Structure prediction request, 215 residues.
Amino acid sequence: MQRIPLSSLLWALAVLAAGALLVFVMLRPAPPPAPQGADHERLPVADAVSGGPIELPISTTGDRFRLADLEGQYVWVYFGYTACPDACPTSLGWISAALDRLPPELEGEVAAVLVSVDPERDDRGRLETYVGHFHPALQAATGSHEELQPITERYGVFYERTEIDSAMGYVVDHSSSTYLVGPEGDLLQIYPHGTPAAELVEGLRTHTEATGTAN
Prediction:
């Protein structure tokens, strides 16, 4: 009988865990339980955040990802990685639920993207599989650390690789905010880790009503 590599088994378990947590988030209106991994509330916070362009070579769309290509839409941007055991499935679950709760006038006007800070493992195929478990409107992109660095600095994102004594080899501790980017590419709002779908949608409606883009 052919043996399944341990790394493949761990990857499959991570995907199953993400799917299970997504179902939990979608069906339960209360916030999910606190994660047992890194304390994302205690990670370093940038003094100044400007946002700005995001352009990366690896994308689930098959072409180079450019945030500018989503001009005219509101975009929820999240920085994480596919092997994340807790924060990413929780946050992406809330973003996916928010996409499903959009009012009729905003359907088709909102997108979402996961920017992976683990380019060593997250190739296009792995990103496609991962985001496919969440929502069809969720894209993903990544690039080298040299390409990620100026982007994460402008968005105030902290991430750091930590070696661990397991088959995974390492984890990536990272901040876990969700960023709302406006139709003209400007950073409108930063939501802390654990912000539920209802608050994401309410924040979006506040901005659309203020600019008169919601009917």
